[in-house]
Structure formats: structure tokens, C-alpha cells
Amino acid sequence: MSVNRSVNFTGIEFQNPFLLSSAPPTESESNILRAFEAGWGGVVTKTIGLHPVVNVVGAKAKFLRTSPEDAYVSMKKRPGAALHSSWNWELISDKVLDWWLPRIRRIKEAFPDRVLIASIMAGSGNDKELQNWQRLARECQDAGADGLELNFSCPHMDRRDMGSNIGKDEGLCSVVTEAVKEVARVPVWCKLTPATAEIEVEAGACFRGGADAIVSSNTFPSIPLIDPDTLEFEINVDGFVSSGGLGGPAILPLSLAKMAQMTRAFPDKSFSGIGGVSDFRQALSYILLGCGTVQVCTAAMLDQAIGPNVIKRLLAGLDQFLERHAAEGWTRVEDFRGIRRDRIVAQSDIRRPDAAEYHSGYEVSEGYAGAEL
Ligand SMILES: Cc1cc2nc3c(=O)[nH]c(=O)nc-3n(C[C@H](O)[C@H](O)[C@H](O)COP(=O)(O)O)c2cc1C
After folding, report:
1. Could you please report the per-residue DSSP string of 168-197?
2. What confidence score (pLDDT) does residue 373 get?
3. Which among 69, 76, 175, 208 counts the fewest CB atoms within 10 Å?
């Protein structure tokens, strides 16, 4: 049986289920063209807004590494250390909508068979802001974007009605999604922040607003370490730092947990997994939990800016996996998507040496306890 890499996700046909996520790898036309040449099935543009942004002085992103002998985690470069995570406080694209529109058009002309999703972001505090979302949505889809990803997850926003502050508020999640759906002719994905207690609550609110898919995770809120010699944060401006976002290998299990909460709550809905993916092994975990596509940022940033080797590994891994499982009749991602979702159960449902001895943290029933005490 021949392997089939293609997937249909929210009605969009992808040559393969692997996308570059909204981040530096997708911040320019040349990067996106290179990404398609390298074989990515799709890209999500760096988030597009209506107003220019001004980033902090100095580095916007750094990488943390850990040493095998003592598990020291630090941004300091040293031989033999392995990647732990990325840390960033980069805002959305510093190029505004009018800069992006002709580029979206040209990219789609050059690669009509690849998927280009426009990530967009505005405020949400009043009708004018909701109209800004609608304008961004309309103009990106008119330029040829195949879908829209609503950024409800940027962790660096001071504004209470923007970025991850939308993703932390069920009401705003519903209202903004609904406003965009009113004008959208293409599928609408909502990218949620992992910085909430029960992410399925916000996912449910997005679905009520009409979302076609949920995307997760954006980076996790985090601050850099303090250098033990200088007593300064490893990244700072004039000694000051603000909360930034952690990505890469360190967030993989955290992000999988967030994703599992949602795919279990909404087994029939569509999900795109992000967080700590650098080859097929990690992508597979997201797919087995129910994701139809998988996105990559940190690993691609470290591989010639757009991940030519990462996509090669993802595709080779998928092909080998399908070949290995040909006997089970699996020929495409849909054949094994979600098959481990139901293996996540309550603690009390996990087998233990003596089930009668475990009472889920409650006191044992009175008569029984009385006999023991
Ligand atoms: C420097 C940097 C900039 C990012 N900018 C955006 C952005 O503009 N919009 C967005 O939705 N996510 C943004 N992200 C988040 C990534 O798309 C991704 O969700 C996150 O890094 C987790 O994936 P990873 O573990 O593969 O890095 C950014 C991440 C980094 C490291």
C-alpha cells in the first residue's frame, strides 16, 4: 500500500500535515517562499495587526540550554549543552496589514497548492476593535489567504483586551470569534494561550463563536534566570525584564496536557498541535491525541530560519511510520489520529497493587475506618 501524506483539515487540503507556526520563520515573503520550497505543507504568517509595533531594545528571542552533568539551565552558550527551550518577548509583526497584503497575493500565486494561513490580532474592548478584526479578516482572505488564525495568545500584551488576555476570557473568545465568522469565507482557527486553568473552557467558548479549529500552544509565560555572578536577568534592558514566552522541548509535555484536555472534551472538533516539535516522534504524540495538523517554531528557528531539515525529518518519519503500520491498514494520518486520546483517565482508574486500599484521597467509609482505627 502506498503512503498518503495529505490531510483535509477544516476543509482545507494540505499536501502534508506540517506547518510553520506564526513566528520569525514566517515573518517575511522570502522566508515563506523558502519554507514552501523546503516542503512545508503550510505556514501561518507572523501575526498581522493594524498598527505598527515597536519591539524592545536588543534581542527579542534567545535559547536556553542545559548541561548533561548538572542540569544547569542557562542562556549562556557553552559546549556540549543541549537545547532546553526558547524564550522570547517579541511582539507581533512589525509590518502592518498593507505591507502584508501584496505579499500574501504573491506567495499564493507562486505556491497555489500550499496553504497560507493569516494570523491576525486586534483589541476587543469595543465595537471599533471588533471591526478591526473584521477588516483584517476580510482583507487577508481577499488577498488569497486560505484561512485565518485568531491570535488569542500573545503573552506580552499590557492591554487587557488583546492577545492572551482574550484567551483568558471566555466571553471575549466567543465575541471575537463570532465577529470574525460574520465576515469570513475561509476557515477560522483560534490560537489559545496555555496560561489558563481549564483550557477546554476557552476552547468551548471559541467553538460556540463558530471556530473551525483550536490551535495550541503558544509560548508559556516565563521569565529568564538570574545570573548567579552578576545578579542580573540573563536577558534584560537596563536591568529590567518583563514576562516572556517559553517554547521548545521544555514545553512539550505541558502543551500535550493542554491539548489532551481539549481533544478529550471535544473529540469531534479539529485541533492543531504546537509546542516542542522537532521531528516526527513529537508530532506523533499530538496526532495520537487527536490533532489533524502540527506546527513548529523553535526547531525551525534553529535550522536555517525555516527548518529545511526539520520538515525533511517530519516527512521521512511520517512515511516510515505509515510503512511500519501498513499491516494495520493505515495509509494516512486520519487512520491513527486520536487513537490514544481515551487512554488519559482519572488517577483512580489507574491499576494499583491493591485497589481496595485506595480511596481517591477520601477517608475510608466510617464502619470500615472504625474497624481499622
Ligand atoms: C520569537 C518568537 C515569536 C513568536 N511570535 C508569535 C506570533 O507573532 N504569533 C503567534 O501566534 N505566535 C508566536 N510565537 C509562538 C509560536 O508560534 C509557537 O506557538 C511557540 O513558539 C511554541 O512552539 P515551539 O515549541 O515549536 O517553539 C512566537 C514564538 C517565538 C519563539
Report:
1. T-HHHHHHHHHHHHHH-SS-EEEEE-S-SS
2. 44
3. 69
User: Ligand 1, atom 19: nearest CA belongs to which residue?
Assistant: 218
Specify whether the CB–CB gap between 302 and 309 falls below 8 A: no
Quick one: which atom of ligand 1 is closest to the CA of 218?
19
Please name the helix (run of DSSP H) or strand (run of DSSP E) that holds residue 117, with its range, or none.
strand 115-120
CB of residue 45 inside a 6 A radius of ligand 1: no
Interval 67-123: pLDDT, tens:
999 999 999 999 999 999 999 999 999 999 999 999 999 999 999 999 999 999 999
Question: Which residue lies with its CA nearest to atom 28 of ligand 1?
Answer: 23
Please, what's the b/e burial string for 21-40 (b: 16 or more CB within 10 A of its CB; e: otherwise)? bbbbbbbbbebbbbbbebbb
Atom of ligand 1 at shortest range from CA of 274: 23
For the whole model, what pTM was predicted?
A: 0.96
Pairing of β 147-152 and β 82-88: unpaired
Give residue 290's pLDDT band: very low, low, confident or very high (50, 70, 90).
very high
Residue range 4-25, pLDDT digits in tens: 999 999 999 999 999 999 999 9
pLDDT value of residue 70: 94
CA of 185 to the centre of ligand 1 (A): 26
User: Nearest residue CA, atom 4 of ligand 1?
Assistant: 23
The reply to whether ligand 1 has any atom less than 6 angstroms from the CB of 61 is yes
Active site amino acids: 154
Nearest to 133 by CA among 168, 183, 88, 83: 183
Distance 205 CA to ligand 1 centre (A): 23
